[in-house]
Amino acid sequence: MSKLSVDHLLGIKYLQPGDIKLILDTAQNFKEVINRPIKKVPSLRDITVANLFFENSTRTKLSFELAEKRLSADVVNFSASSSSVKKGETLIDTVNNILSMKVDIVVMRHPNPGAPEFLSRNVDTTIINAGDGTHEHPTQALLDTFSLRQELGDIKGARVCIVGDIKHSRVALSNIFCLQRMGAEVMVCGPTTLIPKHIETLGVKVSHNIREALKWCDVANVLRIQLERQGGEHDVRYFPSIREYSQQFGINGEMISQTGKKIVIMHPGPINRGVEITSDVADSAESLILEQVENGVAVRMAVLYLLAGEIGRN
Ligand code: CP
Q1: Do 172 and 125 fall into the same domain?
Q2: Any domain includes 1
Q3: What is this structure's pTM?
Q4: Residue identifier of the C-alpha nearest atom 5 of ligand 1
Q5: How far is the CA of 265 from the centre of ligand 1 (A)?
Q6: Which residue is closest in CA terms to ligand 1's atom 6?
């Protein structure tokens, strides 16, 4: 496979295993490029990319911007908090106004699930989903899978447990799709209230016991509790307190040692140290957390490069 089967990156669920392999192999080449003294290549010269962030981000926003600049694209950044969205402009009007300035690719984070897909059907440009509400975060799953392949050599047969707030996590859903397409076995572990009903229909195992889950897995991908998606109007709580959550599901060094084996530790960030993970685990030799961030740039370069090919510009 030398080209993607999709024109946009809206979610992992639209990708074939061959698409994922192509993105990861292309990212491997870009990883070598960004470790050279001259880190820039001209692949996206004359392409303009708009980064539209309607929700907060540190890693994803910076990583996309660096990836675009390493590929020599022209880059414009848009943040909803300082834009005319605040004056009542619709999403389609906002994006069409930006596209009038001759933008080729839109990278978009939005709090509403499905917003990038909606846009892809209503505006004439290439869309990359940088996280849409509780739905998908495809580039996070791709960089997680890339990091894991680099660590394990092969994803096939690996046992990966995603721990924490599965219900509100776009990272969990995209990781489930991506890991399964690459042949891994996936378990989700967390309180009953934070695991979506019927999730086993996606072919994942379910556990509510972190010690048993750690015994089963080779890799623990630990998620933060997404309090910003839980409160809402009526301040709904899914567990009695952060302290209780931490006691029941937080991962610490003692739990890992009790399994008597090596467990690779991953986390998409931002980390809440002492809540879902202790510092001794987050900063251990088994932790891939900072490598995930480093690999994010190469993976996003690969996605941008391959999609720019789809619009006939490389
Ligand atoms: N992992 C992730 O999406 O982090 P940001 O919210 O900082 O982009």
Answers
A1: no
A2: no
A3: 0.94
A4: 57
A5: 17
A6: 57
